[in-house]
Amino acid sequence: QVQLVESGGGLVQPGGSLRLSCAASGSIFSDNYMVWYRQAPGQQRELVASITSGGITNYADSMKGRFTISRDNAKNTVYLQMNSLKPEDTAVYYCYARDSRWQGYWGQGTRVTVSS
Predict the structure, then answer these.
(1) Are 65 and 49 in contact (CB under 8 A)?
(2) Is the CB of residue 93 less than 8 Å from the CB of residue 6?
(3) Could you tell me which of 72, 71, 67 has the C-alpha nearest to residue 48?
(4) Splitting the chain (116 residues) into consecutive groups of 10 residues, what average pLDDT does each group show?
């Protein structure tokens, strides 16, 4: 099984930047498909970005050009670099992993608040 621990959330001003981290353990990390999701109160969870074991990335249209997903297999960690943040980006951000056996795992989430 896989355990995921997110970090890096907090309060940031509009236009600012933040980097989220998700550290994984309990599996061969390099084989994992990794995804960032987010969820605002009362809203459905939405996909933010994903990265395959081969390094192929995809982004939701509203984040494309502002957010960057990356992975460091040596550190068993996936990152989400967020630039030009807007109040609409305020949400709890969740890390998700799918391992080589197609088992899915969720992190506990980290809260991001964008406000002046």
Answers:
(1) no
(2) yes
(3) 67
(4) 94 98 88 96 96 95 93 95 97 95 95 97
